TrEMBL record:
Annotated Pfam families: Branch (PF02485)
An MF annotation (GO) of this entry: metal ion binding
Keyword Transmembrane: yes
UniProt protein name: Peptide O-xylosyltransferase
Membrane topology recorded in Swiss-Prot or TrEMBL: Single-pass type II membrane protein
Length: 301
């Protein structure tokens, strides 16, 4: 029996690129579950997938704006739906619509088949990093205001007078206790949200989140919570309960490049580094900026 991969893909643009990705991932027993951001019409994408029985569009959609809790909620809902769908899988891989494989699909399938029951989740313990920026994400409250403004409480010493006034009012209300305490005596963890999960980890994650909704509520006012919520649940658990986890997401990203290149999509100039990376996937790609890189990756042995 082939090793069955469930791909949970989050996309908000580039329908043709998404279709190309799912075509490249196609393998016996594998299935793609696709979440399209609620801010864009679903029918921008669905016509390209007519007759594709191995691709399913999630009907429950969420607005996923960078930094807020939308993606965390969407990921948890999507992971739960895949797990309860009745369609069997041996690993669940979370991707974005701008990810792309660096190796042939059979190599990906073989890799996970050789690691049954093992999850791959990049992590960094918050106490280990002692990073003030990361700690501020989870130790302060964050709210999205009109015009895409972010209110952080407690705020920085120097901030816009309106935000400073809002902070004074929030403090006076007494509704946002400080210091923030993560429920359940859990320790914060951080890592890439591109998860590669074995069923035992998915089962634990879904069950724990359902039994402890206060954890999601806590992270709904954190910043970039998708890089904390899942890791905190999984890495506070015993290995006997959530299975073995190797701290690696198997993905080459723009963070591997010089800082001035962070905002530039991967392109042909990155091909040597991509080939030498040893990773299974990379991100981000943009066919409107450079489609030749995808052609080059498709031609690699």
């Amino acid at each position: 029996m082939p090793h069955r991969l469930a791909y949970l893909i989050f996309a908000h643009r580039y329908p043709q690129q998404l279709r190309r990705l799912t075509d490249r991932l196609r393998a016996e027993g594998s299935h793609c579950w696709i979440h399209i951001d609620a801010s864009v019409p679903l029918d921008t994408f669905t016509p390209l997938f007519a007759g594709q029985s191995d691709s399913t569009f999630l009907q429950q959609r969420y607005r996923c704006r960078w930094g807020d809790s939308g993606l965390t909620t969407a990921m948890l809902a999507g992971i739960t739906e895949v797990h309860r769908s009745g369609i069997p899988y041996d690993h669940l891989l979370v991707l974005s619509g701008q990810d792309y494989p660096l190796v042939p699909t059979d190599t990906i399938v073989r890799f996970f088949a050789e690691n049954p029951g093992v999850s791959f989740v990049h992590r960094a313990g918050m106490d280990e990093t002692n990073n003030a920026h990361l700690l501020s994400r989870v130790e302060r409250y964050h709210f999205r205001l009109p015009f895409n403004q972010i209110l952080q409480y407690p705020g920085e010493p120097r901030q816009h007078p309106v935000k400073a006034l809002a902070g004074i009012l929030l403090k006076a209300s007494g509704r946002l206790p400080l210091p923030r305490v993560l429920p359940g005596k859990l320790k914060h963890h951080f890592g890439s949200n591109w998860l590669r999960l074995a069923p035992v980890a998915v089962e634990y994650l879904v069950r724990y989140a359902a039994q402890h909704p206060e954890i999601l509520r806590y992270y709904q006012t954190a910043w970039v919570p998708e890089e904390h919520f899942f890791h905190t649940i999984l890495f506070n658990a015993e290995e006997a309960d959530r299975g073995r986890i190797i701290p690696d997401c198997l993905t080459y990203s723009h963070w591997h490049r010089p800082e001035e290149m962070y905002g530039v999509p991967l392109g042909m100039q990155d091909l040597p580094a991509l080939r030498q990376s040893g990773e299974l996937f990379a991100r981000k790609f943009d066919i409107t900026a450079d489609s030749a890189i995808l052609d080059a990756l498709d031609s690699l042995p």
